[in-house]
Amino acid sequence: MRLTFLGTGTSCGVPTIGCQCYTCTSKDPHDKRLRCSALVETETTRILIDCGPDFRQQMMPQPFRKIDGILITHAHYDHMGGMDDIRPYCQFGEINVYADPIAREGLLQMLPYCFAEHRYPGVPAIQLHEIHKHEPLRIGDLDIMPIEVMHHDLPILGFRISPLSSDHLPQPSLAYITDMKTIDGGELDYLRDVDTLIVNALRQKPHHSHQTLSEAVDFAKVIGARQTWLIHSSHDIGRHEEVNASLPSDIQMAYDGQVIEIG
Ligand SMILES: [Zn+2]
Ligand SMILES: [Zn+2]
Ligand SMILES: [Zn+2]
Question: How far is the CA of 74 from the centre of ligand 3 (A)?
């Protein structure tokens, strides 16, 4: 199983429009962060996690092949603003999109023309599936367990993803959590023994709906994954290279375009 970080930035991306700060003026490509999204792939299955407004740009360098499912963490624009741009992938058939009841409602409001009785030809062909925390689903050869995290007072989904094993042995799994501020203790059971953790770290200063860097590091230590990658960062966090040098080697900031192998 392979994960590609398509975007690792917060809602306005890095650099931020009009900003001349230390991070935004960096020449290092690791300091260019599109809105958060990731591709999870096996030999036969391809899942997209979130579909933000940078989707088109993010997919341009990727091989053009079917997307078997899109998992939506929540209905904020930076996580689903690119949904209309999935049109080219509809030539492989309807696209299965998975969202919890709140995010499903958000998709219906944002894309009413995709669900109208008489659709304009060429609009995205979406098969919308309502999913719920702790109710596992399977897409191709991947097992997915939705978990709940709190984005201030909004419950949103994170996902634990594991490849199906032919020999019934446990396979290394990943967990993808974005936009979390807090998590209920009961959810931690679903993250036990996860191999690779991906979790949000906005900046050093507190924020009402996102974890800070130190909160993310503390959370990573509680989970104890072999490797943790930090995402959804703003320009306020500083430059990639310097932040990573200040962190333990098993907890590092991810960067756009980075590919990691799990298992
Ligand atoms: Zn976000
Ligand atoms: Zn800046
Ligand atoms: Zn959000």
Answer: 7
For each of the chain's 263 residues, which pLDDT tens digit applies? 999 999 999 999 999 999 999 999 999 999 999 999 999 999 999 999 999 999 999 999 999 999 999 999 999 999 999 999 999 999 999 999 999 999 999 999 999 999 999 999 999 999 999 999 999 999 999 999 999 999 999 999 999 999 997 777 878 999 999 999 999 999 999 999 999 999 999 999 999 999 999 999 999 999 999 999 999 999 999 999 999 999 999 999 999 999 999 98
Distance (angstroms) between ligand 2 centre and the Cα of 20 equals: 6
For residue 15, whether the previous peptide bond is cis, meaning omega lies within 30 degrees of 0, is yes
70 Cβ contact list (under 8 Å, min separation 6): 47, 48, 49, 50, 51, 86, 95, 96, 97, 98
Find the 31 Cα to ligand 2 centroid distance in Å.
10
The environment of the single-atom ion ligand 2, i.e. residues with CB closer than 5 A, is 16, 19, 21, 24, 235
C-alpha of residue 205 to centroid of ligand 2, in Å: 15
